[in-house]
Amino acid sequence: MLIGMYKYKFIPGLLCIAAALCLMFALMGYAPFYAPSYFFWIGAILSLAGLVSLLKPLSFLFVFNRRIAMVVVGCGLLLIVASLYWPVPTYHAAANRKIDALLPDYSFCEYHEALVDAPPEAVKRALQTTAVDDVPVIRLLTTIRGINDRHAKNKSTISIQK
Which of 5, 48, 64, 153 falls between 20 and 30 A from 30, CA-CA? Predict the structure, then answer.
């Protein structure tokens, strides 16, 4: 009878762990896997769960007492520190552009592309006639950064590469 009573006690914890793994794998589709980032966030979540378990042990997450909670907090902090001290690879700029003279070695780079469902002529015309101030998000971001000059006479336009 005692075993039957505890048989379903761990289902919520297993569901939480399964949901976290599914979320992690779903997010991997948006950015490449970078171990230090995942270690940092896993450590932060472990530390938070351990701190909560110090007040009241979360047995459904397999933290049965405060001693285990201290171990969970310690492991979380260890993961955070390890992720912060993880060596970051550096790359050297192969192209010879102005920014490469200022920053020849870098650690991170991004590539973005957007598929536009329109004929190339319409996209080219829209890019040539759209001013930077016409895009509300850019206006907001430049205002936040303090570089938005609403009184400027010349509106800069977005240029396209041929």
Answer: 48
Cβ atoms 94, 106 nearer than 8 A: no
Q: Which amino acid is at 144?
A: I
Rounded mean pLDDT, 48-71: 89
Q: What is the DSSP string of 36-97?
A: HHHHHHHHHHHHHHHHHHHHS--GGGT--SHHHHHHHHHHHHHHHHHHHTSPPP-EE--S--
* In the predicted structure, residue 78 carries a pLDDT above the cut 90: yes
Tokens encoding 39 = 């270690």
Let me know: does 72 contact 65? Beta carbons within 8 Å. no
Rounded to whole angstroms, the maximal C-alpha distance in the chain is: 82
